[in-house]
Design goal:
This protein is an all-alpha fold. It is built from three helices and no strands. The protein starts with a helix and ends in a 46-residue tail after the last helix.
């Protein structure tokens, strides 16, 4: 009878220790988390005009750039050979990739003439 009391006491101590360790771990993990508030988040957009101005200035500088295309007409450029290979068109895959392999039938797009109103009554 005395063993039962010791077992219960040991169980209660173990539960208390596990609870304390669990609470400590929870407090340690969440110690740096910010508190949730219902306030609206305000974003400062006062610096956006400077960034927008820099972007517009860079865009204007790009518009001024002129490319010299006379190189494409020179004989040295025209003497270059194209070593590329022509890619031949390949047949496309199956019409219905989800159909079982080997089947060639295509599912109808809509209800067929054999469908009746009673076929769809289960979904109403």
């Amino acid at each position: 009878m005395k063993e039962r009391g010791n077992t219960t006491k040991s169980l209660l101590i173990a539960v208390a220790i596990l609870g304390a360790v669990g609470f400590g771990a929870y407090a340690y993990i969440n110690r740096g988390a910010p508190e949730a508030t219902d306030d609206l988040i305000v974003i400062d957009t006062s610096g956006a005009t400077g960034v927008d101005g820099d972007l517009l200035q860079a865009l204007q500088q790009l518009r001024v750039i002129k490319l010299d295309t006379t190189i494409f007409g020179e004989p040295l450029f025209r003497s270059f050979l194209d070593f590329g290979t022509e890619i031949t068109p390949q047949p496309r895959g199956r019409q219905n990739p989800f159909a079982p392999v080997g089947s060639t039938s295509v599912a109808p797009a809509g209800p067929t003439s054999s469908s009746t109103q009673s076929d769809f009554s289960l979904f109403q």
